[in-house]
Specification:
Layout (H helix, E strand, L loop, with lengths): L2 E5 L6 H12 L2 E4 L1 H13 L7 H7 L5 E6 L2 E6 L2 E2 L7 H10 L3 H17 L2 E5 L2 H5 L5 E6 L2 H14 L6 H17 L12 E4 L5 H16 L1
Parallel strand pairs: 1-6, 1-7, 2-6, 7-8
Antiparallel strand pairs: 3-4, 4-5
Helix pairs in contact: 1-9, 2-4, 7-8
The structure holds 2'-deoxycytidine-5'-monophosphate (DC).
């Protein structure tokens, strides 16, 4: 199987770019952030402090998380319920960032990610795909952009969905998440040594997708 690992900070355009590139290559696209978000949603719904490793760890025995593909669209299920929309709420983003720092949560989601990659040609995006989940992935890309540009992209998405968040709030949330994601002890966000870094700050979507596809094709040949 051909596995492409794409890691990078929130809002770098990983999911949009990976989805388009996967479609073009005929691979499935796996968004691993959705898994951490589903655990975050469980914590939010059940009044569990998403930073409390003991409480979150204990709750894992009551949780099942599954990914299913409807055509090429990924849906995430929490205890059998499709939570694909709820996981996109800003509070779910922060809860996901918190639970993702808990080793038991990472261990809980590890096999699921490995199994999908073993069975499918895929582009898998996340924070630790090239470093931890798929260290032998054939192609590894670290996708990034400046915090201001990433926050502006996220802000526009939220406004389209009718959210009331301000740009400053989005930027400040993003900086907190960047800090959490890259400073946690376990599987921190960092480029794999054998990854290619792509900065999308000055690129539009089409240019970014073309760049990613050309990196992938070059490595495949
Ligand atoms: O990519 P995203 O914003 O949907 O991810 C949500 C959170 O999950 C993010 O703050 C970091 C965490 N995450 C992770 O730790 N490892 C991954 N492979 C994917 C996401």
């Amino acid at each position: 199987m051909i596995n492409v690992a794409i890691d990078g900070p929130a809002g770098a355009g990983k999911s949009t770019i990976s989805r388009s590139a996967a479609k073009e290559l005929g691979f499935i696209y796996v968004d691993t952030g959705a898994l951490y978000r589903a655990v975050g949603v469980y914590a939010l719904r059940n009044g569990i402090d998403s930073k409390n490793a003991d409480e979150v760890g204990k709750s894992l025995e009551k949780i099942t998380v599954e990914l299913k593909f409807v055509g090429d669209v990924q849906h995430v299920f929490l205890n059998g319920e499709d939570v694909s929309e709820e996981i996109r709420l800003p509070e779910a983003s922060m809860a996901a960032s918190n639970v993702s720092a808990i080793p038991a949560v990472r261990a809980f989601l590890f096999d699921l990610q490995r199994d999908i990659a073993a069975k499918n040609n895929c582009i898998m995006d996340g924070r630790d795909i090239g470093t931890v989940v798929l260290p032998d992935a054939r192609i590894k890309i670290f996708l990034t952009a400046s915090p201001e540009i990433r926050a502006m992209r996220r802000y526009k998405e939220l406004v389209q969905k009718g959210a009331k968040d301000t740009y400053e709030e989005v930027l400040s949330d993003l900086k907190i998440r960047d800090y959490n994601d890259s400073h946690r002890e376990i599987a921190p966000l960092k480029p794999a040594e054998d990854s290619v870094t792509v900065d999308t700050s000055g690129l539009d979507l089409e240019q970014s997708v073309n760049k990613i596809i050309s990196v992938i094709k070059e490595k495949m040949s």
